[in-house]
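haha ok so turns out i had the wrong file open the whole time. this is the CORRECT one, sorry everyone. sequence first:
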Amino acid sequence: MDAVEQDPEAKLCALDQAPNPCRAKETLSAQPTEPMRVATDDAAAVPLYFDSGARRLFAWLHRAAAGTDGLGVVICKPFGYEALCAHRSVRAFAEATAALGLPTLRFDYSGMGDSSDIDANAEHIDIWLNDIVAAVEELRRRTGVERVCLFGLRLGALLATLAAARCNGVVALIAVTPVINGGRYLRELRTTRLAALLGAESAEWASTSGEAQPESTGSMEFSGYTMSAATMDALSRADLTAFAAPTFSELLVIDRHDLPAAKGWTERLAGLGVRTRYDVLPGFVEMTMVAPQFTVIPNAMMAAVSEWLSGLKRRLPENLRNPTAGQRERVAAISEPGVLPLYGDLVGEVIGAERPAVIGSAAPLFGIVTEPRAREVSGAVILLSVGADYHIGASRMYVSLARRWVRRGYVVLRLDLAGLGDSGTRTGRPDNEVFPPAALDDIRSAMEFLCDRYGVRDITLAGMCSGAYHALRAAVAGLPTNRILMVNPQNFFWKEGMSLQTLQLAEVVRNPGVYRERALSAKAWRRLLTGRVNIWRIVKIYFHRALFALESTLRDLARRLRVRLPRDLGWELQEIGAKGLQIVFVFARGEPGIDLLKIQAGSAIKRLGDLCRIHIIDSADHTFSRSGPRSVVEEILSRELVARSAAPVVTASAPVESGP
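then structure:
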């Protein structure tokens, strides 16, 4: 486990043993009398859970816009980080196919997304294939369609191809940038992992205590997601070109335009009698290989899919296009979103449940509520969006935290802000906004939802990166929160019109030290002398750094003279501390937010005393993508939540004292 060491320039409080939680005297119904109804931008989208063997899977069913033509679509996601990045595009594909009159189901495999957890050391390929079979049956059961088209992206395309032989009624396959050979795909994952390790700062990776232990389990982590040894072994033997003739008769392959790899497989299937279409189109990298806040929906791919599906509908036999009256009656009776029971360490011990939730706002907000079984609750936590990640959080950390905190009696809401994840988008606003100007309205609506539905009054706001920023802004604005847990905030002030790609304060506080280290590097000097370094950008960074140092000194002086300056972080922290609000910062060592906090808050941090606690974790990256550091940050947040909840506090709605 990574060390949590003292920072000589900031307060770092050691973790004490967490006391028993102080339970609020409120009641919680484990089984609400009416289901939570959900409406997103796509009014026909319904969240639901369904069974796959002993596990429950989470899914969205996008109902057909105008009846059904007897054909439905099941979307099979990519693996891990690619699935996180592609979430926005997967939703867009599902909405587009439903608009064609084809009911569409998109779902999370076991151990992924919002679905049930599974044994990390198990062989997952066969489990995921069975999940696809269950998804196909669920779509047929809920919509009455007789025929299904499987739609797979990347690893999802390989899984869909293999699962088709196990499914009843699969007549067609759409494979978008498919993985053809599992062994080659594993080599790609390993290469990407090695590049990430080599590209990180040497100090960040100096410790190996947080690494997965391949000598004991053989598992490996890829961009925050673990693949077991058994899974890698099964995947290494998967080769679509070696399989016999498929059971489906229609195939659309959309290959990536930069590195096409599926033409040979497509031609082989055409030779086996499958009606095929092969397209090479742009959009793969922008859809799945950039951070979620920078992803672009692949419109060319969507147009090709829509055109092909429209043709497929016309080719279907007439008797498959219109469900019978009995099928329509069966579908109408199925409407419950359901719940995901959460089991404890003991067999059969139910510790709580998860259910989808809609929150009324200017745009319908979506989230997953994890609620404890106990009738008394300790409080509530709202986990706010990490960048443009949807509500599972980076490396699925939010799911892990919610299912951990439910054991302590907390109701946890994993919330998608408007325009992100599965929430609706406000009229006149773009989607995928990381710092939406109306975020405070979303948080206020979420708080009212928790208070009204669960009777909680002790509410914690927590988040990573931009989620930490929104938690802080909510506390400063006086929203009724008792504590804020902030992980790796990279800025503390944002105004509309700023760009994520322009020069940020994070660069100004971080890069001077990097440049000093590189001054002794011959390679860096060669880059400079050959014109491959933007010298004016470096000058600009040093200039701004000097201005920030001067500004920090002047702001500290102004605070001592009780003069409030605009955009003063130190003053803001003292104000919310004066209300009794508890403040927790957690940083990966080397994060620019550490220096930024020192510069913008100054000596106010010390004056806050125990109301503000700062933790710094070694050997971690910005999103805690490795399991070792991630377990450390989860432990810190858990202990801080429980310890702080046990201490008496003044609610955030108390009057604010004048002056710092």
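Residues 535-560 form the longest helix (26 residues).
again sry for the mixup
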